Amino acid sequence: MNKPAFDDIFMELAVNLAKRSHCIKRHVGAVLTKDTRIISIGYNGPPPGTHNCDEEFPEEGCPKDSKGGCSLAIHAEQNAILYAVKNKATVEGSTLYVTLSPCLACARVIYTAGVEKVIYLNSYAEYKGIASDEGVDFLRKFGVAVEKYDGQIEHVTELI
């Protein structure tokens, strides 16, 4: 029997977690690990106790902020890191698996939290139609290892 690599297991979990998202525009999942153990998970959506966008605003999604972004959404990476910190898990030296490369705001949080490595499935720049993955560039500039996932995901369905 072939055992799957941890990278494959964690990325497959991130893809499946993305399916939990209440976002209308994009589903993103994240898994925060340390020493082959999961320390936290997250997916994009509004903070607990607020509105679920797909239920409250099923046609257009949540109201937009002054910059045109979602006014309620917390990104998957932020959710994973916030939950870990809230529960007193040590984030420093961890690896983050995420289905969409981090935006610049998430990159700042990732760096500040002490995440050591980020492995992403799809490009945020390609999704947004921008020239470069600013978050990836930021992380690399300040010494965080970043890799595009190139493993095998076998038991998942396509992301929205």
TrEMBL record:
Residues 5-134 form the CMP/dCMP-type deaminase domain. It comes from the Bacteria. Transmembrane segments: none annotated. InterPro entries: APOBEC/CMP_deaminase_Zn-bd, CMP_dCMP_dom, Cytidine_deaminase-like, dCMP_deaminase, dCMP_deaminase-rel, Deoxycytidylate_deaminase_dom. One of its GO terms (biological process) is pyrimidine nucleotide metabolic process. Pfam families: dCMP_cyt_deam_1 (PF00383). GO terms for cellular component: cytoplasm. Keywords: Hydrolase, Metal-binding, Zinc. Zn(2+) binds at residues 75, 103, 106. Its cofactor is Zn(2+). The active site is at 77 (proton donor). GO terms for molecular function: dCMP deaminase activity; zinc ion binding. SUPFAM superfamilies: Cytidine deaminase-like. The keyword Nucleotidyltransferase does not apply. The keyword Oxidoreductase does not apply. PROSITE patterns: CYT_DCMP_DEAMINASES_1, CYT_DCMP_DEAMINASES_2. Belongs to the cytidine and deoxycytidylate deaminase family. This is dCMP deaminase.
